[in-house]
Every structure is written in structure tokens, then in C-alpha cells.
Amino acid sequence: MRRKGAFYDRMRVIYPFPIFTMYSNTANPTFADFSLRKQKMTRTAAFLEHVNDTVDFSFTEEWHEQLHPSRRGRPPFDAGVMFRVILLQLWFGLSDAEAEEHIYDRQSFQQFLGITTDTDVPDETTICRFRALLQKHKLEEAFFVEVYRQLEEHGVKIRRGKIVDATICETPKGRKRKDGTTTRDDDAGFTKKNGRGYHGYKGHIATDTKGKFIEERVISSASPHDSQFFDELVDDSDQAAFADSAYINTERKQKYREDGKLYGIVERATRNHPLTSSQKKRNRKLSTVRCRVEHPFAEIKKRMKFWLRYRGQRKNEWQFTMVCAAYNLKRLVGEYHPAQKQAVIWRPPVLRRVTVSGEC
């Protein structure tokens, strides 16, 4: 019985032009198949390309000398490459093993890292050790400040006030071992929200009122109330502060009004004291500004797949600071880069019905 593709095999010998590559055997592709295949610019590849064009990673050169002072032994991976791997983990919610696999598999990741061969790919142990070095030298604060500086260089940081809010970051409650000890994180705490109990930490942030960039961040146990960290997130130089009703404070409200600052805390009704119509109207106006602080939490938790992976407040504080800085970088590239903005956040126009009167 004649094979189905025998005709095209004979024609390839007689007429060896690229037009017949579409009929080649897909199970055994040739170099011509890869070279003639149409390369599509994916959203991930476009985003990573704009990151390299927008962000200045020269600060990692100083980190390389600080993290690897010794000249003995095998040369370590470049700190710039390894730090980009950490960013990929934060942006796409990857573990160490998943990051290694994705770098091997995805061409966009290799181009972002500047890797040309498989021998240049760091394994999961190397990634874990590099992250431990970052935690040991406490470089997360330096990275957050560097991102803040680059935001100001691009002219996207406009200080018009701060919006404060907190979110619950759950961690496993742990289990008891046979020897009586437990695997529970001792630094984590318990809290209750809407009748449901949670165990873990709370991430507190303060964003600007326009660009939704995270300016301040604090992580704490889940037990303390949100209002206890208001003064750590908002300083005296801020001319306005917005928050939900959990941050109500009569003394702070009076001080803000005496200093001529905008006190944007949402009012809350109490027993036998319902909100008046003017207070409800004011709350609706404040909510149009206050709701912007929810967007960073949605981006970090849903798209960046953030969750606390470690035990102990020190490691979780490092992770929360790094993910906030990585969010600011992603926000800078995705929102303010013209090509990325057109490719990612474009929306189709709304078609409206138009009534035409008269004769045609």
C-alpha cells in the first residue's frame, strides 16, 4: 500500500522549495521547519522584552561583589541573571523546580535571562542558595528603594497622598508530630473575618492615589488590628490619607483637619447612630479613590499567585517586600510602556446605536 505522503516526498526531491515544508512530518521536524515557522510574539515575550528595555539592572553588578566576595572555586552565576530568575518566580508564581523547568522549556525566559545554551541554566539548588544569600544580606530593602528611584526617573511617581489597606496571607496551621512538637509557624497568628478563622500573617501596604504603586509595606502577624500600622505607612509629609472604616481614629481626624490635610477615612455607622445622607455621599466619593488600593492585592494574589511559602516572619517579610517591588516593576512596564499598554490592556470600543432622521 502506497504511503500517504509519498507523493510529497518525491516532489520534495524534484521541487525542493519551502512551499512543501507544510507537508513535512511533524513528528521529526527539520531545521528548515523551525526556520520557516512563523514566530508569534506572545504577551509574556513582549512583557519581558519591555522589562529589559525599561528597567536598568546595573545595580546587580554591585550585588555580585557583595554576594560572592571569594575568588576561589568554580565561578558563580552572574547576579544579574540570578536576580532575573527571582523576578520570574515572583511574576509567575513559580517554585524553584518550576522555575528551572520553565527556563529549559520557554524561549522567552531564555531570551530574558540572556541564556544561549542549556549548560547556562541554573538548577533549583542554585536558585535556592541565591535566594538565601539575598535574605542573609537583607537586600530586599535595597531593591525596593532602587525600584522607587527608577519610578521617579520615569516620571510616574506623583505624591498626592496615600491609600492604606491590609490583606490576610494564610499559612498552614501545622500538625503535631509524634514527639509532641508541631510544624506550626510560631510567628504567625490567628484572626477572624466575616465569621471565618484564619491563620497566618497580614500584609499592610500604602499606595499612591494615582498610579497604584506600592510606596510602603509592612508584614505582621494576623492577630493585631489593621489600624495599629497606620502610622508606619503614612508619614507627616503626606497631604492626604484614604482608608476603610477599620482605620477610624477621632484624634487623628482632628489633627488632620488642624494641619489642613485631607482625612479620607470612610465613616462607619454605630448603634443608634446611622449614617446621614451627607456621610453616605462622602463615603461614595471617598470609595472612588480608596478602591484603588485593592488592585495591587488582586494583581499580587491572583495573577502573580502570591502566597507565603516559608516559616518565620523574617523570610516571609523578605518575600512580601520582594513581591511588592516586583509588582511595581510590572506596573511600570505594563501600564506606562506604550507598546505594552497597547498590546495588553487594550479594550474594544463600545458601539452605540445612532438614530438618523430625515431622507437618505
* Strand element count: 6
The secondary structure category is alpha/beta
General form: globular
* Oligomer classification: single chain
Biggest β-sheet strands, sense, barrel: 6 strands, mixed
What's the SSE pattern? HHHHHHHHHEEEEHEHEHHHH
**Residue runs with pLDDT of under 50 for 5 or more positions:** 19-24, 338-360
Give the CATH architecture of the largest domain.
2-Layer Sandwich
What's the total helix number?
Answer: 15
According to CATH, what is the class of the largest domain?
Alpha Beta
Helix percent band: 40-55%
Mean pLDDT value: 83
Beta-strand percentage range: 5-15%
For the record, give the distance between the C-alpha atoms at the N and C termini, rounded to a whole number: 67 Å
Which fold name is given in CATH as the topology of the largest domain?
Answer: Nucleotidyltransferase, domain 5
Q: What's the domain count?
A: 3
Radius of gyration: 27 Å
